[in-house]
Amino acid sequence: MTTIRTRFAPSPTGLLHIGNARAALFNFLFARHHGGEFLLRIEDTDRERSTQQAVDVIFDGLAWMGITADEKPVFQSTRQDRHTEVALELLEKGLAYKCYCTPEELKQMREDAMANGKPPRYNGMWRDRDPSEAPAGAPYAVRIKAPREGETVIEDLVQGEVRVANAELDDMIILRSDGTPTYQHAVVVDDHDMDITHVIRGDDHLTNTFRQAMIYRAMGWDLPRFAHLPLIHGPDGAKLSKRHGAQSVVEFRDEGYLPEALCNYLLRLGWGHGDAEILSREEQIKLFDLDGVGRSPSRMDYAKLLHINAVWMRQADDERLTSDVMDRLKAVEGVSTDDTVRARVLALMPGLKERARTLVELADSAAFLGRHVPLSFNAKAEKILTPEARTILGGLARELAAVEDFTPENIDAALRRFAEAGEHKLGQVAQPVRAAVTGSNTSPGIDATLAALGKDETLARIGAVLHG
């Protein structure tokens, strides 16, 4: 049995788009499901647009998503000699030829074709001409000889059988006049040399496949199996754009999504397995195969992603969430992030994470734990802190000061004792103290909230309200 080898081959010319991230995930899961290998190739032959920053974004994004390659990344720009070698071999075999057309001649060809209602393409001017007819020392490109009869058939693992008449294919350039290989040529040579068995990529590459197949067949190489994934659209069915919301992996990370949640969502965006919705990485590897990928474009559903993220947040480790919250709070003015505050956040995390849908919301809800007295209050908290409520707080402060072991259980008992003694409803006691210690009208359970703050801080915050 041949070992299945897949690859993710992004161009480092911008951000790691969500569509590319899904392609990387599908390649990774497919390889893992079949006990194969997943590789990474950086297609950086466009030296003007490729940047180290974009390369770093790709590496960071994949690492954050937990998508790891089985071999060192291949940089396409380091393989130019090999690309040239294959182009010259095709030239030597008579399967490619030198084209001496000038830019002006090519422009005229396109215009003539369009004037005759035909696609603007090269007309094969130098295909059968003797190179000796070219001006001495004239620059030339190397073009492959496209088949002129019959058709090319691709058995796509997602799209099914796809056909194109060979008459529709022109003699594409594989080596430019400056000696650099074209993308269409380089990608074939690299996939062949890397022993790639399955090319899984967006269906915007489907037309490229017919052109690339010419090189495979001219070299006598076996074609890999192709699987072209439908693209991801915005919620309205239009091309995904900024107006829809986040588009890149970095944006989703910054907006507080967990990598497990994003991967889980991307997996279900165009692939399905019954009603299964929340799947661990182990379950994803076990279940994923290409027969579950649909043919229709997927629509980004940000509300669904938010729901899935909330589910993963509740399952996440408290220490991990606390570390992320503390990092985010460092950027918030007026919030301390020392060890005392960290301990408070960790203690209250079980309650905090039940109420948050993103890490941003989680950090916002935890910020009160690091604020200094006197606190500022939101409008609803201000409304709660009436003169009557402040009177209740004064009595409650004495009750809480008497609690020796400041645990949630003992705090709850003290609140109930105080409410019963004063013939108050529990909410009439809990809401004022919540407003006083958090500056807000919402928080996790008040007993857990006070326990996380500790007795001294709780009494200091109540005192600031009473004497402010």
From TrEMBL:
Renumbered to this chain, motif 'KMSKS' region spans 239-243
Q: Name one GO molecular function term.
A: tRNA binding
* Its EC number(s): 6.1.1.17
Q: Under which name does UniProt file this protein?
A: Glutamate--tRNA ligase
**PROSITE patterns (alphabetical):** AA_TRNA_LIGASE_I (PS00178)
The record's subunit annotation is: Monomer.
Entry's InterPro entries? aa-tRNA-synth_I_cd-bd (IPR045462), aa-tRNA-synth_I_codon-bd_sub2 (IPR020751), aa-tRNA-synth_I_CS (IPR001412), aa_tRNA-synth_I_cd-bd_sf (IPR008925), Glu-tRNA-ligase_bac/mito (IPR004527), Glu/Gln-tRNA-synth (IPR000924), Glu/Gln-tRNA-synth_Ib_cat-dom (IPR020058), GluQ/Sye (IPR049940)
Gene giving rise to this polypeptide: gltX
Q: Which GO terms describe its cellular component?
A: cytosol
Primary site of residence: cytoplasm
Q: Which family is annotated?
A: Belongs to the class-I aminoacyl-tRNA synthetase family. Glutamate--tRNA ligase type 1 subfamily.
Motif 'HIGH' region, residue numbers: 10-20
Domain Aminoacyl-tRNA synthetase class I anticodon-binding residues, every copy = 338-465
Which residues does the UniProt record annotate as the domain Glutamyl/glutaminyl-tRNA synthetase class Ib catalytic? 4-305
Positions with a binding annotation for ATP: K242
**Could you confirm whether the keyword Ubl conjugation appears in this record?**
no
Q: Where in the cell is it found?
A: Cytoplasm
